[in-house]
């Protein structure tokens, strides 16, 4: 029960990793607010310490409302996990529109500014808190055709390091997780147009992991809960690779 009495907000809570992270946090005693585009995606997380919020993470007002609501209910905001995100189908840059670039940058990077700004407003006066951003090993080990996604994840990591140095004097920590190819609904969305997604999954993704299997959402959840917990009280500005060695 490392998270007993703590309040944590998890974005993308209806997705593969977000669900596993929320479930693990509930097991460890936290009160959890999940944010995703629709409530149905979070239906499997039914628990008396879980509240589902249907909201777009680019909607500043809606995000502020979630923090206000949870702070009103529990009197604290201890953690923020930014797990929401979108993939890019592998596409040569010459075929990527500026709108597609902006969409990826907005959802995967600009949202972090909106969410972290809100979290810092509660965590700084409290003198404690932990922010965890899910980026991607692709920021360190790129693949062809994912240029816009990779840029958004590089921004996520740099932004989180920037937060770490800025918020350290207030007792607030910020860290990044770089997952390797993970067994969630997102994986098939990286497939190039016209390619077979099962084949891509096996031949490109699974075979690229030195430890020999795809990353499971629970592998990510374990690392995230560690970074949120007091076990990591001197860990800030770091990037935890949970990638089975893919980044090597
Ligand atoms: N699956 C992988 O192979 C992989 C690898 C490295 C990094 N990641 C990153 O891990 C994170 C979690 O991905 P996942 O694999 O669980 O994917 P997923 O698609 O299962 O979950 C992502 C969730 O984010 C939500 N979301 C998207 N846009 C949103 C918005 N504007 N507002 C609110 N919610 C929104 C989706 O509805 C979805 O439930 C993402 O940031 C992803 O980029 C995934």
Automatic annotation (TrEMBL):
GO molecular-function term, one example from the UniProt record: glucose 1-dehydrogenase [NAD(P)+] activity
Top class in the EC scheme: oxidoreductase
CDD domains linked to this entry: SDR_c
Recorded superkingdom: Bacteria
Key words of the record: Oxidoreductase
Family: Belongs to the short-chain dehydrogenases/reductases (SDR) family.
Signal peptide positions on this chain: none
SUPFAM superfamilies given in the database record: NAD(P)-binding Rossmann-fold domains
EC id: 1.1.1.47
Organism: Bhargavaea beijingensis
Protein name in UniProt: Glucose 1-dehydrogenase
């Amino acid at each position: 029960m490392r998270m007993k009495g703590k309040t944590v907000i998890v974005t993308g809570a209806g997705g593969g990793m977000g669900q596993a992270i929320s479930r693990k946090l509930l097991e460890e005693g936290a009160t959890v607010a999940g944010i995703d585009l629709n409530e149905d995606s979070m239906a499997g997380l039914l628990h008396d310490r879980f509240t589902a919020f249907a909201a777009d993470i680019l909607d500043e007002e809606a995000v502020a409302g979630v923090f206000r609501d949870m702070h009103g209910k529990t009197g604290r905001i201890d953690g923020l996990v930014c797990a929401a995100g979108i993939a890019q189908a592998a596409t040569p840059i010459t075929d990527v529109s500026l709108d597609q670039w902006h969409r990826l940058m907005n959802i995967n990077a600009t949202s972090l500014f909106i969410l972290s700004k809100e979290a810092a407003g509660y965590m700084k006066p409290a003198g404690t808190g932990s922010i965890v951003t899910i980026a991607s090993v692709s920021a360190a080990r790129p693949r062809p055709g994912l240029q816009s996604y990779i840029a958004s994840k590089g921004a996520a990591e740099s932004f989180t390091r920037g937060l770490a140095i800025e918020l350290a004097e207030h007792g607030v920590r910020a860290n990044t997780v770089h997952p390797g190819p993970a067994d969630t609904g997102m994986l098939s969305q990286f497939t190039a147009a016209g390619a077979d997604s099962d084949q891509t999954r096996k031949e490109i993704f699974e075979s690229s992991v030195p430890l020999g299997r795809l990353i499971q959402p629970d592998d990510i959840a374990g690392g995230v809960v560690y970074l949120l917990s007091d076990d990591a009280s001197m860990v800030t500005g770091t990037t935890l690779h949970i990638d089975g060695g893919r980044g090597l």
